[in-house]
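Data card: per-record layout.
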Amino acid sequence: LAFRSLFVPLRAVFSIGLTLGTSYGLLVAVYQRGAPAWTGLPAFQTSPSGISWLMPIISFACMVGLGLDYDIFLLTRIYELRGGGFADRDAIGHGLVLSGNVISAAGVIMAVAFTGLFMTPTVAVNQLGFALVAAVLLATFVVRTLLLPPLMSMLGPLNWWPRRPPTATQPRPLPPLPPAPAR
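The structure for this 183-residue chain is written out next.
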């Protein structure tokens, strides 16, 4: 409703579903199939009981919240630039440049925070930490930076359907970034 578009929520469901599916697939590969068991690390040992039943229930809400947060942050910047007269591709590129460092920093901070859960000997908590670290890193560095910009570029004006965005003016350079603080 905020973006007055039908494709924005559909694209968000697709991107968050991609993150969820990939991180749950990695979870199965690690804890049921034993993919990295060769490392000998206790965190990567297969569990005789498989994946804890509580892990997907708890991790789902966290993964959706983080994925939606990163998605809305990037999309808001693109929406502002598109409303300011940038063409779709220019708005997507500039939006990624202007918000990418903040999204990347937030993702790294969250991954480091969830790594503490990943290092515990309790199997359910270990699995939860792995799933959250995988989801945050996938959402931050793969989905938001590598997959969404090309997808939005291909959709072009359909991103904002049924609303029509303003007519694009000539491509403009990015506004200058504020100077870095002196140390």
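Known properties of this structure: The chain has four helices and no strands. Helices lie at 7-31, 54-83, 88-118, 123-155.

See the next section for split statistics.
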